[in-house]
Amino acid sequence: MGHNIIESTTSKHRLPELTSIGVTPFIIDIGSLPDTVQEFLQADVLIINIPSKNIDGFRLLAREIEKSTIRKIVYVSSTSVYDNTNTIIAESDGLESAQNPLLIIEHLLNKCSTTKTTTVRFGSLIGYSRNPGNFFRKGRKVQHPDSRVNLIHRDDGIAIISHIIEQEVWGEIFNCCADTHPTKREFYTQAATSIGEPAPEFVLTGTSPYKIISNQKVKQCLKYRFPHPDLMKIQFEAAT
Protein backbone atom coordinates (compact mmCIF):
# COMPACT_ATOMS: atom_id res chain seq x y z
CA MET A 1 0.00 0.00 0.00
CA GLY A 2 3.02 2.29 -0.36
CA HIS A 3 4.13 2.31 3.28
CA ASN A 4 7.69 1.68 4.45
CA ILE A 5 7.66 -1.37 6.70
CA ILE A 6 10.02 -2.32 9.52
CA GLU A 7 9.42 -5.87 10.73
CA SER A 8 10.72 -7.94 13.60
CA THR A 9 11.53 -11.63 13.73
CA THR A 10 13.17 -13.87 16.32
CA SER A 11 14.85 -16.02 13.66
CA LYS A 12 18.05 -15.00 11.89
CA HIS A 13 17.31 -17.35 8.98
CA ARG A 14 14.25 -15.25 8.09
CA LEU A 15 16.23 -12.03 7.57
CA PRO A 16 16.95 -12.65 3.85
CA GLU A 17 13.30 -13.61 3.23
CA LEU A 18 12.02 -10.38 4.82
CA THR A 19 14.56 -8.27 2.97
CA SER A 20 13.52 -9.88 -0.32
CA ILE A 21 9.90 -8.68 0.09
CA GLY A 22 10.97 -5.09 0.69
CA VAL A 23 10.81 -4.69 4.47
CA THR A 24 13.59 -3.70 6.86
CA PRO A 25 14.05 -6.60 9.30
CA PHE A 26 15.27 -6.60 12.91
CA ILE A 27 15.91 -9.39 15.37
CA ILE A 28 13.61 -8.59 18.30
CA ASP A 29 12.77 -11.03 21.09
CA ILE A 30 10.25 -9.86 23.70
CA GLY A 31 12.05 -12.01 26.26
CA SER A 32 15.34 -10.15 25.85
CA LEU A 33 15.08 -6.82 24.08
CA PRO A 34 18.25 -5.97 22.10
CA ASP A 35 20.24 -2.75 22.16
CA THR A 36 18.82 -1.98 18.71
CA VAL A 37 15.22 -1.77 19.96
CA GLN A 38 15.12 2.04 19.76
CA GLU A 39 16.36 1.90 16.18
CA PHE A 40 13.51 -0.52 15.48
CA LEU A 41 10.90 1.69 17.17
CA GLN A 42 11.13 4.46 14.56
CA ALA A 43 7.70 4.46 12.94
CA ASP A 44 4.35 6.22 12.82
CA VAL A 45 2.44 3.08 13.87
CA LEU A 46 3.55 0.00 15.80
CA ILE A 47 1.61 -3.23 15.19
CA ILE A 48 2.27 -5.80 17.92
CA ASN A 49 1.26 -9.28 16.81
CA ILE A 50 3.36 -11.85 18.63
CA PRO A 51 2.22 -15.05 20.40
CA SER A 52 3.71 -14.14 23.76
CA LYS A 53 2.27 -13.78 27.25
CA ASN A 54 5.55 -12.54 28.73
CA ILE A 55 4.25 -9.79 31.01
CA ASP A 56 7.70 -8.72 32.18
CA GLY A 57 8.90 -8.52 28.58
CA PHE A 58 5.96 -6.35 27.62
CA ARG A 59 6.53 -4.13 30.63
CA LEU A 60 10.07 -3.45 29.39
CA LEU A 61 8.78 -2.93 25.84
CA ALA A 62 6.25 -0.37 27.11
CA ARG A 63 9.09 1.61 28.71
CA GLU A 64 11.04 1.54 25.45
CA ILE A 65 7.95 2.66 23.51
CA GLU A 66 7.60 5.68 25.80
CA LYS A 67 11.17 6.68 24.90
CA SER A 68 10.57 6.24 21.16
CA THR A 69 8.83 8.16 18.38
CA ILE A 70 5.89 5.72 18.39
CA ARG A 71 2.58 7.47 18.97
CA LYS A 72 0.04 4.87 17.76
CA ILE A 73 -0.20 1.17 18.53
CA VAL A 74 -2.36 -1.67 17.26
CA TYR A 75 -2.11 -4.59 19.68
CA VAL A 76 -3.39 -7.97 18.51
CA SER A 77 -4.86 -9.68 21.56
CA SER A 78 -7.29 -12.59 21.71
CA THR A 79 -10.91 -13.39 22.50
CA SER A 80 -9.46 -15.79 25.08
CA VAL A 81 -9.41 -12.81 27.49
CA TYR A 82 -13.11 -13.58 28.06
CA ASP A 83 -14.39 -16.31 30.32
CA ASN A 84 -16.79 -18.92 28.98
CA THR A 85 -20.23 -17.64 29.92
CA ASN A 86 -22.46 -19.58 27.49
CA THR A 87 -23.67 -16.18 26.29
CA ILE A 88 -22.95 -13.58 23.61
CA ILE A 89 -20.13 -11.25 24.70
CA ALA A 90 -19.55 -7.64 23.61
CA GLU A 91 -16.60 -5.41 24.46
CA SER A 92 -18.62 -3.36 26.95
CA ASP A 93 -19.85 -6.33 29.00
CA GLY A 94 -16.85 -6.45 31.33
CA LEU A 95 -16.53 -10.23 31.16
CA GLU A 96 -12.74 -10.38 30.80
CA SER A 97 -10.80 -12.71 33.08
CA ALA A 98 -8.85 -10.37 35.38
CA GLN A 99 -5.92 -12.79 35.69
CA ASN A 100 -5.53 -13.43 31.97
CA PRO A 101 -1.99 -12.38 30.99
CA LEU A 102 -3.18 -10.96 27.66
CA LEU A 103 -5.54 -8.62 29.51
CA ILE A 104 -2.68 -7.52 31.75
CA ILE A 105 -0.57 -6.82 28.65
CA GLU A 106 -3.45 -4.85 27.13
CA HIS A 107 -3.50 -2.66 30.25
CA LEU A 108 0.28 -2.18 30.14
CA LEU A 109 0.13 -0.88 26.57
CA ASN A 110 -2.87 1.32 27.25
CA LYS A 111 -0.99 2.96 30.12
CA CYS A 112 1.84 4.14 27.87
CA SER A 113 1.78 7.88 28.42
CA THR A 114 3.01 8.85 24.94
CA THR A 115 0.79 6.66 22.75
CA LYS A 116 -2.78 5.77 21.86
CA THR A 117 -3.47 2.06 21.57
CA THR A 118 -6.27 0.23 19.81
CA THR A 119 -6.63 -3.42 20.79
CA VAL A 120 -8.04 -6.02 18.40
CA ARG A 121 -9.14 -9.22 20.09
CA PHE A 122 -8.95 -11.85 17.37
CA GLY A 123 -10.67 -15.18 17.37
CA SER A 124 -8.55 -18.15 16.34
CA LEU A 125 -6.88 -17.50 12.98
CA ILE A 126 -7.75 -19.52 9.88
CA GLY A 127 -6.94 -19.23 6.18
CA TYR A 128 -4.05 -20.07 3.86
CA SER A 129 -1.49 -22.17 5.77
CA ARG A 130 -3.83 -22.34 8.77
CA ASN A 131 -6.23 -24.83 7.23
CA PRO A 132 -8.70 -26.03 9.90
CA GLY A 133 -9.23 -29.25 7.97
CA ASN A 134 -5.74 -30.25 9.11
CA PHE A 135 -6.03 -29.17 12.75
CA PHE A 136 -7.06 -32.58 14.07
CA ARG A 137 -5.07 -34.99 11.94
CA LYS A 138 -2.89 -37.80 13.28
CA GLY A 139 -5.34 -38.94 15.91
CA ARG A 140 -5.91 -35.61 17.65
CA LYS A 141 -9.35 -35.50 19.20
CA VAL A 142 -11.77 -32.58 19.47
CA GLN A 143 -12.75 -31.74 23.01
CA HIS A 144 -16.15 -30.18 23.77
CA PRO A 145 -17.57 -30.80 20.27
CA ASP A 146 -20.79 -28.89 20.97
CA SER A 147 -19.00 -25.68 21.99
CA ARG A 148 -19.29 -22.74 19.60
CA VAL A 149 -16.24 -21.51 17.66
CA ASN A 150 -14.95 -17.93 17.38
CA LEU A 151 -12.71 -17.73 14.31
CA ILE A 152 -11.38 -15.09 11.94
CA HIS A 153 -9.95 -15.44 8.44
CA ARG A 154 -6.51 -13.92 7.94
CA ASP A 155 -7.85 -11.65 5.18
CA ASP A 156 -10.27 -10.09 7.66
CA GLY A 157 -7.62 -9.72 10.35
CA ILE A 158 -5.28 -7.80 8.06
CA ALA A 159 -8.10 -5.70 6.60
CA ILE A 160 -9.38 -4.66 10.03
CA ILE A 161 -5.89 -3.50 11.07
CA SER A 162 -5.62 -1.55 7.82
CA HIS A 163 -9.00 0.11 8.41
CA ILE A 164 -7.97 1.18 11.92
CA ILE A 165 -4.80 2.83 10.60
CA GLU A 166 -6.47 4.44 7.59
CA GLN A 167 -9.40 5.79 9.63
CA GLU A 168 -7.24 6.86 12.60
CA VAL A 169 -9.38 4.99 15.13
CA TRP A 170 -7.37 4.96 18.35
CA GLY A 171 -8.09 4.19 21.97
CA GLU A 172 -10.62 1.46 21.16
CA ILE A 173 -11.09 -2.26 21.78
CA PHE A 174 -12.58 -4.39 19.01
CA ASN A 175 -13.72 -8.01 19.03
CA CYS A 176 -12.78 -9.51 15.66
CA CYS A 177 -14.32 -12.76 14.48
CA ALA A 178 -16.68 -14.00 11.79
CA ASP A 179 -20.45 -13.50 12.00
CA THR A 180 -21.25 -17.18 12.43
CA HIS A 181 -20.42 -19.48 15.34
CA PRO A 182 -21.08 -23.11 14.38
CA THR A 183 -20.26 -25.90 16.80
CA LYS A 184 -16.84 -27.50 16.68
CA ARG A 185 -18.53 -30.67 15.44
CA GLU A 186 -20.19 -28.86 12.53
CA PHE A 187 -17.23 -26.72 11.52
CA TYR A 188 -14.32 -29.14 11.81
CA THR A 189 -16.26 -31.99 10.19
CA GLN A 190 -16.98 -29.85 7.13
CA ALA A 191 -13.47 -28.37 7.05
CA ALA A 192 -11.92 -31.85 7.06
CA THR A 193 -14.25 -33.59 4.62
CA SER A 194 -14.11 -30.65 2.17
CA ILE A 195 -10.41 -31.35 1.59
CA GLY A 196 -10.76 -35.14 1.52
CA GLU A 197 -9.73 -35.79 5.11
CA PRO A 198 -11.77 -38.00 7.45
CA ALA A 199 -13.90 -36.25 10.03
CA PRO A 200 -12.05 -35.82 13.33
CA GLU A 201 -12.92 -37.86 16.40
CA PHE A 202 -14.98 -36.03 19.00
CA VAL A 203 -14.73 -36.59 22.74
CA LEU A 204 -17.93 -36.17 24.74
CA THR A 205 -16.99 -34.73 28.13
CA GLY A 206 -20.29 -33.68 29.65
CA THR A 207 -21.13 -30.01 29.31
CA SER A 208 -19.59 -27.91 26.55
CA PRO A 209 -18.73 -24.44 27.88
CA TYR A 210 -18.58 -21.73 25.24
CA LYS A 211 -18.83 -18.06 24.44
CA ILE A 212 -20.13 -16.29 21.35
CA ILE A 213 -18.07 -13.20 20.55
CA SER A 214 -20.03 -10.31 19.06
CA ASN A 215 -18.37 -8.44 16.18
CA GLN A 216 -21.02 -5.71 15.96
CA LYS A 217 -18.78 -2.91 17.26
CA VAL A 218 -16.02 -3.35 14.67
CA LYS A 219 -18.60 -3.44 11.88
CA GLN A 220 -20.33 -0.30 13.13
CA CYS A 221 -17.32 1.81 14.12
CA LEU A 222 -15.18 1.01 11.08
CA LYS A 223 -18.05 0.51 8.63
CA TYR A 224 -16.37 -2.83 8.04
CA ARG A 225 -17.83 -5.66 5.96
CA PHE A 226 -16.30 -9.08 6.43
CA PRO A 227 -15.16 -10.80 3.20
CA HIS A 228 -15.53 -14.10 5.15
CA PRO A 229 -18.56 -13.63 7.43
CA ASP A 230 -19.87 -17.23 7.25
CA LEU A 231 -17.40 -19.85 8.44
CA MET A 232 -19.34 -22.69 6.85
CA LYS A 233 -18.95 -21.12 3.40
CA ILE A 234 -15.17 -20.61 3.44
CA GLN A 235 -13.38 -22.77 0.88
CA PHE A 236 -10.16 -24.45 1.97
CA GLU A 237 -7.64 -26.23 -0.20
CA ALA A 238 -5.96 -29.51 0.59
CA ALA A 239 -2.22 -29.35 1.24
CA THR A 240 -0.08 -30.26 -1.76
Please characterize this protein's 3D structure:
The chain is an alpha/beta fold and 240 residues long. The chain has one domain (6-128, 150-181, 210-233): Rossmann fold (3-Layer(aba) Sandwich). It is built from 7 helices and 12 strands. The chain has helices at 15-20, 37-40, 55-66, 101-110, 154-167, 184-193, 216-221, and strands at residues 6-9, 24-27, 45-48, 72-78, 88-89, 116-122, 124-126, 141-143, 151-153, 173-176, 201-203, 212-213. The strands form 5 sheets. Strands 3-4-6-10 form a 4-stranded parallel β-sheet, sandwiched between helices. A two-stranded parallel sheet has the order 1-2. α3 links the parallel β3 and β4 (72-78). α3 runs parallel beside α4 (101-110). The longest helix is centred in the last third of the chain and has 14 residues, at 154-167. The mean pLDDT is 95.
